Amino acid sequence: QADTWMAKQEAFLINQDLGDSLDSVEALIKKHEDFEKSLAAQEEKIKALDEFATKLIEGQHYAADDVAQRRALLLERRALLMEKSAVRRTMLEDSYKFQQFERDCDETKGWINEKLKVATDDSYLDPTNLNGKVQKHQNFEQELNANKSRIDEVLESGIELKESGHVQSERIQLKLDEINDLWQDLIKSAEKKGMRLAEASQQQQYNRGNEDLELWLSEVEGQLLSEDYGKDLTSVQNLQKKHALLEADVGAHQDRIDGIRISSEQFVNAGHFDAENIKTKYDALDGRYGNLMKPMSNRKVRLMDSLAVQQLFRDVEDEEAWIREKEPIINSTNRGRDLIGVQNLIKKHQASMSEINNHEPRIDAVSRTAQNM
Predict the structure, then answer these.
(1) Exposed/middle/buried for 260, CB within 10 Å: 0-12, 13-18, 19+?
(2) Distance between CA atoms of 252 and 250, rounded to whole angstroms?
(3) Which of 61, 155, 262, 331 is most deeply buried (CB count within 10 A of its CB)?
């Protein structure tokens, strides 16, 4: 009877199935616990059988030698059974730990892959609600930091299994490498996205500065296209004052253009993700600024020409007014009625002629100016 029971237990321990999932391993452990309870339940019977055999041997039973031999064989089989049971229990426990580790790895891998989708998206290319995206990424990084201990626990559990000489050490190492590589990819991707968002924020400020200058350039270009060069001396002088202010304003904006250039170069040298577009925008802006100089100079010259013309018109008007003022005196028919009257008229005439002769260079100067134009 003991031999039959022993054979049945030995057959149970021949099973090499250690489970291929957490649930299956738990089921096998439950079966093994039941098996161990069965072993414990039979222990008293084995002990009683041992004691009975001892009595027969000590009583010098005629079959004492056979009894001793069979008792020794039974006890040896029991010891081997207990040893094999302990070995299988250890193997099942190792299998359970491995399945736990593999489950944790799968869950961690899935979590990391989900986070990688967020970390590797290109939302930074769209400047819409950029501040909100920066804040969201900061929260994302905080989430990663909060879960670092979870990743470390999974890796540490795998290392412990491997260092314990687990039968699945090679597979455990592959899992460790996979999780570690994925985690490092996630960290690097998150850092890269954080840098890209920071670059996008800096570019947004840079673009605002560019846009302000572009608006200003459009206003200046519009003023320089004006065909208004004044209709009289006063309006020309006012336009010149306005143009002088415009020249000063253009000169003052050189610092802002230089600032944009420095920022552009910094973006390019730092390897900004949109460096090419940034440089293109700066080149276009700088080109527009440089193109102001020629039309600004041309307008200044035309206003000077307009001033000269209007000054000539004013001088001509002044001379014509002077001539009209003198004509009545020269064309007067008063010849005097007596000697004293005639003498007084002669003196007045001589004074007028002297004034005319003295004024002649002024007339000549106005004429030469007109001829030179």
Answers:
(1) buried
(2) 5
(3) 155
Low-confidence ranges of the chain (pLDDT < 50): none
pTM of the model: 0.64
d(CA 142, CA 40): 54
Q: Which residues contact 17 (CB under 8 A, 6 or more apart)?
A: 28
CA distance from start to end of the chain: 141
Report the alpha-carbon distance of residue 220 to residue 182 in Å, rounded: 55
| pLDDT tens figures, 72-105 | 667 677 777 777 777 777 777 877 888 888 888 9
How far is residue 66's CA from residue 57's CA, in Å, rounded to a whole number?
A: 9
Asked if residue 319 lies in contact with residue 363, where contact means CB atoms within 8 angstroms, the answer is yes
Centroid of chain to Cα 172 = 37
372: DSSP letter: H
Give CA–CA dist 253/257, Å, rounded: 6
Instruction: Report pLDDT for 361.
Output: 78
Which residue's entry shows tokens 């307008």? 299
Cβ neighbours of 126 (radius 10 Å): 10
124 neighbors 200 (Cβ within 8 angstroms): yes
Residue type for 310, please? Q
Enter the tokens of residue 332: 């007067």
Angle CA 185–187–188, to nearest 5 = 65
Do residues 190 and 144 touch, judged by C-beta distance below 8 A? yes
